Amino acid sequence: MDARELALLSELAKMMQELSDEGVNAEDVLLGTRTALLEKKKASEKEKELEKGKANKVTTNKIRVYEHTSECYIFQDGRNTRNKTWSMRIWDKKRKQPLIRSLRTEDQAAAITIARDHYMNFKSRGAVYLTTDSITTKGLVGLYENKRRKEIAENPQESITPRSFDAEVQRIKHWVDYITEKGYIEAKLENIPPELGLDFAQWIRNRKITTGKRKGERKKRSNSTINQCVSATKRMYHKVAHDGGYITANEIPKFTYLKKERNKISSKDLLQKEELEVVYKWMKEKYPHEEGITHKEYIKRRIYNLTFTIHNLTGMRPKELLGVQWFEIRPTRQTEKGCQDNMTIHIPVEKSKTGKARDLVAPIKSQLDRLKYWYEQLGHKVEDKKEFVFLKLTDTGLRNNAPMTAKSIGDRLKHVIKGVSEDKSNDLDLSHLNITNYSSRHYYITDLLFKDVSHHTIARQVGTGTTYIDEHYSHLIPEMKQKQICDATAEHEHLIMELKRRRN
After folding, report:
1. pLDDT digits over 363-380, tens only?
2. Which of 169, 250, 344, 402 is close enough to 392 for a disulfide, judged by CB 3.0 to 4.6 Å?
């Protein structure tokens, strides 16, 4: 017996003594050794089976992705003789279960290449690259909505507001309808062709109304609105489907965006000063005095007149206007003569689209006083400063402090524009214009630009950026100042003609 063997025997004796001290006898050691040998034999048999590519009912044509490891291989489904698509199998040691993914190709070489890419990502990311679960589009939407619902906050800068959450849900619904129409609503995410997303934006553009009186008509949607739907869907895939390990980066749908529209504010979206004067006159003299209306309707029209006026004098977004409460309004510090009618309106963070609070100044004291007067004529006295300034004009609305809706004032505006256009006494036809609740904001901004108020001041008043004003409104100023421009040009031309005359 040589020195090496003696050393091994000595080490074995030492180990046996240590095991004995721990209560482990020779029988226990023998049993453990036999178990280890049995497991080794089983592993060897599995290895041989894999090497031969032995077929079973589920997996056939097993091929190792890498020769040095049996952790990953590709195979075909033996149960389906028509479909020869390759799939891959990776053994996840951490989860102690296999991860199986369809490779969506019948080409063996391509399957091996794709599987190797998946396997390398799997190994490099610590077996968290993919989950063993598969979900459908409906499952994905459910997970995403739950995720976003937990992020809801009143401040838009903190995450997402309740209103924005509802809007995002509606945007994603377009994708669900699209996938349904394409026949993939029951398909697993990994089995949906990524190229399917390329036509999504155009599909929304061409989509028709599916319910209501206008069913079957094509709904006009701006490129910006459509792109928001695409962005919401894309975000859902990245934040849940990919980050959650349900699909790989290559399996994320490929989306395209529609061309961004510039200078979308048109002269058709707002009233000119002369047109607005006609509208104000008609609303004062004819709108509340229409034959056949009740006294209550008369008061409601008076209140809408004031609402419309205040909107034009503040330039607030419709949602901001209807969300104002009495305690958010205070008299402005009078620093100049003739400012007694000026009031400061505070727009808090939770009511601001941008997530930034602001104060705006407007000469609306007399209108607010008249508003209280007409509320009293309806039997409602404004006493609680937490009340909304613009109340829903029903008994229940007045009693329960319910604010006016954008739809209600929008319907009234349509009625007014129609009435002015059909009135033969003013020779003013506004029917070709696209006048909406937002038109008051458009008018306010363009009016201040016309009066040469700085872009910075306007931006502070209306709660937007100077860049936005430049891009969307500045192009309207030449049209609005055409008289001044033409007068200046004419004066210049006159000067040239005078110089020519003198030369002659």
Report:
1. 999 999 999 999 999 999
2. 402
